[in-house]
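A.,

Following up on our hallway conversation. Structure tokens first:
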């Protein structure tokens, strides 16, 4: 179940969003964090999946770098001024649904003045924000994780990764003999060839 939605602009330091996904997934598990390039299944409707994830989430982290506010399309028009802009629509939906919409500034706090935001996003300017800086990324993200745990009680740590099962080779029988085609060890098939007399039915 998606609990944290990562909203980011692909032309605005996208590697930061990938880093957030890596660290938050490590903390809470891949199902709890929505990161478009990882979370949307191949062949799925990209737009449908995106907005369904916003609706299902508890929090929308709006990752804001130096170009988030000013990014323009090929004709020089600011993307945020386009009602069809996906980042704008993600944040709008989060605000409309009363999600915990949290601005996360990269490197330094970027001023979000109500006069520079579309009317539908002006509420964002008054939201309590946090900052993650390159040289302080680990403690900054640790603080964000702590806040998310406190604000979203259902957000629990990811289960520990399963350890690989070791094989005690001392319990295996050793057989020798000519190679015929499949591998059996102690009368058990273990690979593409077998040694010794061919087992019946093979």
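Then the amino acids I'd put at each of the 202 positions:
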């Amino acid at each position: 179940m998606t609990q944290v939605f990562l909203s980011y602009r692909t032309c605005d330091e996208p590697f930061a969003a990938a880093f957030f996904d890596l660290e938050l997934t490590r903390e809470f598990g891949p199902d709890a964090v929505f990161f478009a390039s990882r979370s949307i299944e191949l062949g799925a409707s990209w737009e449908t999946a995106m907005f369904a994830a916003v609706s299902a989430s508890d929090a929308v982290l709006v990752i804001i770098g130096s170009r988030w506010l000013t990014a323009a399309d090929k004709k020089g028009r600011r993307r945020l001024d386009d009602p069809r802009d996906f980042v704008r629509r993600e944040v709008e939906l989060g605000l409309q649904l009363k999600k915990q919409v949290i601005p996360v500034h990269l490197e330094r706090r970027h001023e979000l003045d109500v006069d520079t935001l579309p009317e539908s996003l002006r509420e964002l300017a008054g939201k309590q924000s946090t900052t993650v800086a390159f040289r302080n990324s680990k403690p900054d993200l640790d603080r964000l994780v702590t806040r998310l745990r406190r604000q979203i009680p259902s957000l629990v740590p990811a289960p520990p990764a399963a350890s690989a099962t070791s094989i005690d080779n001392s319990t295996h029988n050793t057989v020798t003999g000519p190679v015929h085609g499949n591998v059996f060890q102690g009368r058990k098939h273990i690979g593409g060839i077998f040694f010794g007399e061919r087992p019946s039915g093979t």
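Helices lie at 14-28, 36-39, 46-56, 86-96, 137-151. Curious whether your intuition agrees with the design.

B.
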